[in-house]
Amino acid sequence: MNPLKYIPLALIASLSSLHAQDPKLAPADLQFTKSTIEKNHLAAKVTLEVQPDNRNKDLHYKYESYPGREQIQAPDGTTYGRKGSMPWMNSNDWGETGPVTNDQTGNELTTVARIVDLPFIVHHSSDQTQGGFVWKPISQKKDEEPQVFTYEMSREHPNADGFYPQFTFIKYKDDKDGNLLLKTAIVQIKPQDTLFPVEVDYSYMFIMPANSDPSQTGTMK
């Protein structure tokens, strides 16, 4: 069985002028990305660098999903998959066949899979001294195709030594603010009561009708 019966969507465009990106619409861009992921094929690379108990431990893994299926490839090449809410399996065919993992491994896989969703969580804070959330420009590449914009989700009165997540969006010629896809996110996780930064790189393939013109297809990375 080959469950990935799709044709990637074409993303063919060329820049004729510079297009501004409104950082205030970054939350809308994140929600647009979330809805896109839910309907199409996502491939993500997750990189976590942690140092618990003064021991260096790096976590690198690949995560993929498309409607109703998930797959994780560990650094040693071991692949796990699951269908919907079914248990995780040692599987090379998206949870179609293979032995079911034990409860501990299954819980760990669910936890690392959810890291990919962290950028799309609506944030709230009990620390009112920092004020409201503010989206600040960090960098931009406007002379390339596509354009790339990076923003930090900071606060009105940020802590000098505070960590604030960063989000990089890609923008093609005809894309409108509020409808951009997330390329990279740097967020934090809290294993064992300690915060660590984690970077997630996203790429997409769009499910298209089987009779689509293959000459008009491609992938977004």
Features:
221 residues; mainly beta; 10-stranded antiparallel sheet; 10 strands
In quaternary terms, these chains amount to single chain
Radius of gyration: 19 Å
Q: What's the pLDDT, averaged over the residues?
A: 81
Strand order of the largest sheet: 5-4-3-2-1-10-9-8-7-6
Describe the structure.
The protein is mostly beta strands and 221 residues long. It has one domain (23-216). It is 12% helix and 34% strand. The chain is built from two helices and ten strands, in the order αβββββαβββββ. The protein has helices at 26-39, 103-115; strands at 41-50, 57-66, 69-73, 79-83, 89-90, 133-141, 147-155, 166-171, 181-189, 196-205. The chain has a ten-stranded antiparallel β-sheet with strand order 5-4-3-2-1-10-9-8-7-6, covered by helices on one side. Strand 1 (41-50) and strand 2 (57-66) form a beta hairpin. The chain is globular, with a radius of gyration of 19 Å. It starts with 25 loop residues before the first helix and ends in a 16-residue tail after the last strand.
Question: What's the short story on this structure?
Answer:
This protein has 221 residues and is mostly beta strands. It has one domain.
Question: What is the strand and helix layout of this fold?
Answer:
Blueprint (H helix, E strand, L loop, with lengths): L25 H14 L1 E10 L6 E10 L2 E5 L5 E5 L5 E2 L12 H13 L17 E9 L5 E9 L10 E6 L9 E9 L6 E10 L16
